[in-house]
Write a structure and sequence with these properties.
Order of helices and strands of chain B: HHEEHHHHHHHHH
Helix content of chain B: over 70%
Distance between the termini of chain B: 22 Å
CATH architecture of the largest domain in chain B: Orthogonal Bundle
Shape of chain A: globular
Largest sheet of chain B: 2 strands, antiparallel
CATH class of the largest domain in chain B: Mainly Alpha
Radius of gyration of chain B: 27 Å
Largest interface: A-B, 21 and 17 residues
Number of helices of chain B: 11
Number of strands of chain A: 10
Strand content of chain A: 15-25%
CATH topology of the largest domain in chain B: MetI-like fold
Order of helices and strands of chain A: EEEHEEEHHHEHEHEEHHH
Number of domains of chain B: 2
Strand order of the largest sheet of chain A: 6-7-8-3-9-10
Shape of chain B: globular
Oligomer: heterodimer
């Protein structure tokens, strides 16, 4: 497979009043066309920063990102982003949200009828054709995220960037969304970088899992190849030996090698919260 | 509240359906209680008024104000009939002159009668509207620019912060002088006094609108801005599709605040500068010092309040019409 994206020697340093803060250091990653790569790591390790640098929303301090032989310097629709909290424009219907993207990306190269077909096609792909003309506030969290994915897909990106796309959803909705995403991948075979903190999600969806060390100065710790056969089925995988092994490998990395020590304060706080809720219940 | 609920329980006992009694409770809250408040206020007012003696007689109570409102309306009608009669006389006279001497070019003189209370209301409303619109035309684009650009914000902020607390009345003498210097036509289409009041209104509307618009624009959810960046929306489309819809509630908050201030300031400016309008009416009545004066001033006060309320409601209706978020207008 040909190399599509090259993240090369990326360092990210944020200037703060207390001096420079090194968030990322020496990130190197090559991604081939059609590959599904997950970035996993504890919160605050800079996963989102990596994604934002690829998206062009942030500029790397050192190093850079090369897409198709060209350096990335600004955001663009060929690197469509699915944001964690859907980011639909609340004053536009699902259809109009996708339409804004389609009109901007394809402009006059698509006829009116083609534009309409393309918008409806993408909404059908994420199973949102029944609620096309509803506004985001009339949709559930999962449905909003589906529209967000449709909007990104409709841009026909070379690489799809997903920033914890299902992080804000409940477990059941999340599994539905993962199944939908696998179904779409089966059809379109997009190149995807997805950020997640869900081990099962990473193993189920990815071709490779990139595990990041804890910040500050986070970098890539290990890369795990997932050679499970596709299409994958979550129920049969649950008892699969290979799946269990891979899952264990990620868990070992996260909870033994990169164990995050919570400061005493936050533990105390969370116990306070439990205490309070007990009081309220009584 | 307590009275209302106890009433509904009583109504319930008389065997009404819960829905019906709920409806009654609703209308109690929305209609009966505010009405009771007004009745209580009127009673307090008339008792207090009858106990205040001024050199111009008793302080006007609700009755006196009502009488004055009626007589102001009657005077307005009389003035209109006089005006009509004047123009008819003029027309007749001119026709006679032309009949005697066919070369005569008739002169048409406009009527110069006293402006009535209703005329003054119209003048004040026109002034506040045009000043407000002029301010909106300047302030909203400026606010958007300041909200979008940190550099512009840093540049303009000190200026805005210094001029914001200045009473627009302090500007009034300067405005008057500048207008007479720059607008020096012998036969002005728009009266200078109108321009003076209008610019004063504009000056006081400007700041709340600029500040609210810029804050609204600057506080747009950064995810939405990122969407626009990923799509590479051009600047104008970004403003049209993202910035304006997102900041409409804040823009309207600014517009409502400034319209409220503008209406208050305009009355004061008209009193101070003797520019035609409700403020001049109040001042003239005060100078007049007849036994009716206080009643007329009080009538003007009530009308000024009612118009202020009406202006605010109208803005709310416009906001409801324009905004995508229908609940934002009820806040």
């Amino acid at each position: 497979m040909s190399e599509l994206l090259n993240i090369s020697g990326v360092d990210m340093i944020f200037p703060t009043p207390k001096g420079d803060f090194t968030a990322l250091t020496d990130i190197n990653l090559k991604i081939s066309k059609g590959e599904f790569v997950s970035l996993i790591g504890h919160s605050g390790c800079g996963k989102s920063t990596v994604l934002n640098i690829v998206a062009g929303l942030h500029q790397a301090t050192i190093g850079g990102v090369i897409l198709n032989g060209k350096e990335v310097s600004e955001p663009g629709p060929e690197r469509a982003v699915v944001f964690q909290n859907h980011s639909l424009l609340p004053w536009l219907s699902a259809y109009e949200n996708v339409e804004l993207a389609v009109k901007q990306v394809f402009g006059k190269s698509k006829s009116k009828a083609d534009t309409k077909d393309w918008i409806e096609h993408n909404l059908r792909l994420v199973h949102m054709d029944h609620a096309m003309h509803k506004r985001p506030d009339e949709l559930s969290g999962g449905m909003k995220q589906r529209v967000g994915i449709a909007r990104a897909l409709a841009m026909q990106p070379e690489i799809l960037l997903m920033d914890e796309p299902f992080g804000a959803l409940d477990a059941l909705t999340r599994s539905h969304m993962q199944d939908s995403l696998m179904e779409i991948q089966n059809e379109l075979n997009n190149t995807v970088i997805m950020i997640t903190h869900d081990v099962d999600e990473a193993v189920l969806l990815s071709d490779r899992i990139v595990m990041m060390t804890n910040g500050p100065a986070a970098t890539i710790g290990e890369i795990l190849e997932i050679n499970l056969e596709r299409p994958r089925d979550r129920i049969s995988l649950a008892s699969d030996v290979e799946y269990t092994k891979l899952r264990q490998a990620v868990l070992t990395f996260l909870y033994e090698k990169q164990r995050k020590v919570e400061p005493i304060n936050s533990i105390k706080k969370s116990s306070d919260v439990v205490h309070n809720s007990k009081n309220e219940a009584a | 509240m307590k009275a209302a609920t106890s009433l509904t329980t009583k109504l319930n006992m008389t065997g009404m359906s819960p829905k019906m009694s709920g409806l009654i409770a609703g209308s109690l809250q929305n209609l009966v209680i505010p009405l009771a408040g007004i009745v209580f206020f009127l009673a307090f007012w008339s008792v207090a008024a009858s106990n205040i003696n001024t050199s111009l007689g008793k302080f006007p109570g609700p009755n006196a104000v009502w009488t004055q409102l009626n007589s102001l309306y009657v005077e307005h009608n009389e003035e209109r009939t006089k005006e009509q009669a004047f123009y008819e006389r003029q027309k007749k006279r001119n026709a006679e002159r032309v009949a005697q001497d066919p070369d005569y070019v008739p002169k048409i003189r406009s009527y110069t009668g006293k402006e009535t209370f209703l005329d003054q209301i119209v003048t004040s409303l026109l002034t506040v509207m045009s000043g407000f619109l002029l301010a909106a035309v300047i302030a909203i684009p400026l606010g958007i620019a300041i909200g979008l650009s940190k550099t512009l914000n840093t540049a303009f902020n000190p200026v805005i912060q210094i001029f914001k607390p200045v009473s627009p009345l302090a500007w009034l003498p300067l405005v008057t002088m500048v207008v007479s210097a720059l607008y020096a036509t012998p036969d002005p289409v728009i009266p200078k006094s109108f321009l003076n009041s209008m610019i004063t209104v504009t000056l006081c509307c400007l700041w709340p609108m600029v500040i609210n618009t810029s804050v609204g624009v600057a506080s747009i959810n950064s995810d939405l801005v990122n969407v626009s960046r990923v799509l590479r929306l051009p600047a104008l489309k970004h403003i049209q599709k993202i910035v304006l819809p997102a900041s409409i509630p804040m823009i309207f908050t600014g517009m409502r605040t400034s319209l409220g201030i503008a209406w208050m300031v305009l009355i004061a400016a008209e009193m101070l500068a003797q520019n035609p309008g409700l403020g001049k009416f109040v001042w003239d009545e005060f100078q007049n010092g007849s036994s009716d004066s206080l009643g007329r001033i009080m009538a003007a006060v009530v009308v000024i309040g009612a118009i202020g309320f009406f202006l605010d409601r109208s803005m709310l209706q416009i906001q409801k019409f324009v905004s995508w978020d229908k609940t934002s207008a009820s806040r």
